[in-house]
Design brief:
Blueprint: E1 30-32, E2 40-42, E3 50-51, E4 57-66, E5 70-78, E6 82-83, E7 87-88, E8 93-104, E9 107-110, E10 113-117, E11 122-123, E12 126-127, E13 131-137, E14 148-151, E15 158-159, E16 165-173, E17 176-183, E18 192-193, E19 198-209, E20 212-215, E21 219-222, E22 227-228, E23 236-242, H1 245-250
Length: 251
Amino acid sequence: MSSGLQSCDFATGRGWPILPPSGVLGGRAMRVNADFGERVVIRPEDYQWRASPAAGVERMMLDRVGEEVARATTIVRFAPDSWFDAHTHGGGEEYLVLEGVFSDESGDYPAGTYVRNPIGSRHKPHTKEGCTIFVKLCQFEEGDDAQFHVDTRSADYQPGSAEGITVLPLHSVPGETVRMLHFAPGAKGPRHAHEGGEEILVIEGELADEHGRYPAGTWVRNPVGSSHLAYSDTGCLIYVKSGHLAQVAAD
């Protein structure tokens, strides 16, 4: 699976411009958690918010590779009445609204809305009341051109891999699967290996495995070949993307 880097040029306005983290040589070469063969855990107490070029918009970078051309996974926090200028998604955009209401020309998206904007799509995002979103940029394959949104709060979940676990499929293409998983209190999943890697964002409650505990707001990247046994004592809701790290880890 290619990273889509060749088509996400922030210098020309395709994608979202992102300021470099402090301490980066020349303010250009940005590499944040860029070794995709490593496991990464970022909890809310680890967040370091950085101002963006847009007034009232801050970002917590989870991973990033690139200079003016970049692949990025970020939590973005918008103050009330803030916005970004109109821009085109040169490498595609995927996001989940975590808090508040995120809006653009196509509609208003409250917390729990999952949105995919494919390569070449364009919008001018804004928010009236303020919002926080989890967004992934420049990670679409050519041909992955479905543009849609899902209200995950009202959608019907299906029985999952074990008792007490239900699943909401969001998107699936070769090399990538995106789902929401709900764990009832005390639910435990089967031990499984991540042949193509896995990313998790804990939306509600607390997830746990043999490596630790992950409260709401925690982002976990499990590399290719890793395995674990996930469970939740309290119950939780998580976003899960799997399979997509195989090629980028090999590059």
